[in-house]
From TrEMBL:
Stretches assigned to the Reverse transcriptase zinc-binding domain: 76-158
Native source organism of the sequence: Raphanus sativus (Radish)
InterPro entries hit by this protein: RVT-Znf
Name of the protein described by the UniProt record: Uncharacterized protein LOC130511263
Pfam families given in the database record: zf-RVT (PF13966)
Length: 260
């Protein structure tokens, strides 16, 4: 902890060996630290000397984990620890489309890359001197917006998956699609299904694109739609929403809005 605050030279300035025990640093009611260290680490000295002095009759030492400002617990939390060490930034508007309870982590990662426009599409590859067009329709300028879902192939797939959920809001334009998905006035089940379909469609389109490009293996749009449908059904079943759970009708609703 001291090294975190003072750097590698901290123990030298303070006169405290790296492996010293507390009992070696605090003896006879006095902190044994070099005086000259105060000139460099005045705040550290003030914090140490202002803290409650250790005492044998205070009982055994115990470890507490920091969960927040002035909030310490006797158990460890990965989430709380991560919150303490990470740099917080404003939430992006599309956060709920990438990260939600019913989502699949590997798919969320691909969606995150898509939103940040970091997928290795043709436009990005061209910067490295590699020319590649769309593997679905031959469009020479393959970019994020084209793949999702301006390409005739992927738009047909998207339309098939979401026509009952989005109605007239189905669009081949990336920005229009995102705006429609973020619309708050929507039934809860439909909202979850749309996010799941969006995430799964992007993942499967990207995987199919890579399969065609790197392995020369391809499937038609109907087969891809059936694979997405099957994946969504299996994902919903894995959530085990049964009985009186408020989302128990999620699978039934999917059967209603997607007929294949």
């Amino acid at each position: 902890m001291l090294i975190d605050k003072t750097g590698d030279l901290g123990p030298t300035y303070l006169g405290i060996p790296r492996q010293a025990m507390l009992s070696e640093v605090f003896t006879d009611g006095v902190w044994r630290m070099r005086r000259r260290g105060r000139r460099v680490f005045g705040e550290v000295y003030d914090a140490i000397e202002g803290a409650t002095a250790p005492a044998i009759d205070a009982g055994r030492d115990f470890v507490l984990w920091r969960h927040g400002d002035d909030d310490f617990k006797n158990h460890f939390s990965t989430q709380k620890t991560w919150d303490q060490i990470r740099v917080r930034k404003p939430e992006v508007p599309w956060r709920s489309l990438g990260w939600f309870t019913q989502g699949v982590p590997r798919q969320s990662f691909i969606v995150w890359l898509a939103f940040r426009d970091r997928l290795s599409t043709g436009v990005r590859m061209r910067q490295w001197g590699i020319t590649q067009g769309c593997m679905f329709c031959g469009e020479p300028n393959e970019d994020r917006d084209h793949l999702f879902f301006a390409c005739p192939f992927t738009y047909t797939l998207w339309l098939k998956l979401t026509s009952q959920l989005l109605g007239n809001s189905v669009s081949p334009a990336w920005s229009t699609t995102v705006t429609a998905l973020l619309r708050s006035r929507r039934d809860k089940l439909d909202g979850i299904l749309l996010k799941l379909v969006f995430q799964t469609a992007i993942y499967f389109v990207w995987r199919e694109r890579n399969s065609r490009r790197h392995q020369g293996v391809r499937v038609d749009g109907g087969t891809l739609a059936r694979r997405i449908d099957r994946f969504i059904r299996h994902r919903i079943l894995s959530l085990k929403y049964t009985g009186s759970h408020k989302l128990a009708g999620l699978l039934r609703r999917w059967f209603e809005v997607y007929t294949g």
